[in-house]
Design brief:
The protein is of the alpha/beta class and 249 residues long. Helices cover 47% and strands 14% of the residues. It has one domain (8-243): Rossmann fold.
Length: 249
């Protein structure tokens, strides 16, 4: 089985945005990086290039995290390639944009899409990674959302799914202790391609004007928090760290 002194991180949904920035940051810290994507292959290949520019080894894996069998196969590939896993960053997520007041538009298939990826997929990844993380006494950081705290967001189902991620974080922090720490980051609006599909530049400025720090997060702001929880503390577990410019204060 391959072994190396360098730690290994898996960042799901790391083709763009927060995931890409996080992958690069781990590479800069001396980690080898597993880049995961579901559909954005060209963007994922670019993330690999950026990671390897930092001197890291990289493994690119296409995997829909909403499929348990595919997730288990991904973890087997990681074990075969690197022999270990030190950090799992659950960043992959999806949504449907549905006005909260339009209850009929929040259809069953939209519910299923969102819960399958955001809740079941997060759980599938942690469960499949747990044996490797126990060996390394590693940790998990999931990217949740303040939508899971305040009930706002792109749809009711999305907010509910992120609320579930927050409680999963606490439940699994207990279940996997003391070998594995499990935490989450809860961003407010983040200026990514995903958000720009929903908002114009002016809408983002209007949304954040009342926040104490008066701006949306950049991907590197969220990567800062992920890196802290993964590498900057050894006694933090079961926590959902809000990074929202003071919105929920």
């Amino acid at each position: 089985m391959p072994t190396d002194s360098r730690p290994v991180v898996l960042v799901t949904g790391s083709a763009t945005g927060i995931g890409r920035e996080t992958a690069i940051r781990f590479a800069q810290l001396g980690y080898d990086v597993v880049v995961n994507y579901s559909r954005s292959e060209a963007e994922a290949q670019e993330t690999v290039r950026l990671v390897t520019e930092q001197g890291a080894k990289s493994l690119l894996i296409q995997c829909d995290i909403g499929q348990d069998a595919a997730v288990r196969k991904m973890m087997a590939q990681i074990e075969a390639h690197f022999g270990k896993l030190d950090v799992l960053v659950n960043n992959a997520a999806m949504t449907h944009i549905v006005a909260h007041a339009d209850l009929e538009a929040m259809s069953e298939d939209k519910w299923d899409d969102i819960l399958r990826t955001n809740v079941k997929g997060t759980f599938f990844c942690i469960r499949a990674a747990a044996p490797l993380l126990k060996k390394s006494r590693g940790n998990v950081v999931s990217v949740s959302s303040v939508a899971g705290i305040g009930g706002e967001g792109s749809s009711i189902a999305y907010a509910a799914s992120k609320g579930a991620v927050n409680t999963l974080t606490k439940s699994l922090a207990r279940a996997l202790s003391p070998e594995i720490r499990v935490n989450a980051v809860c961003p407010g609006p983040v200026d990514t391609r995903w958000l720009r599909k929903m908002m114009t530049e002016q809408q983002m400025k209007d949304r954040t004007a009342s926040y104490p720090l008066q701006r949306a997060a950049q991907p590197e702001d969220i990567a800062d928090a992920i890196i802290y929880l993964a590498t900057g503390t050894t006694l933090t577990t079961g926590q959902c760290l809000v990074v929202d410019g003071g919105r929920t204060m």
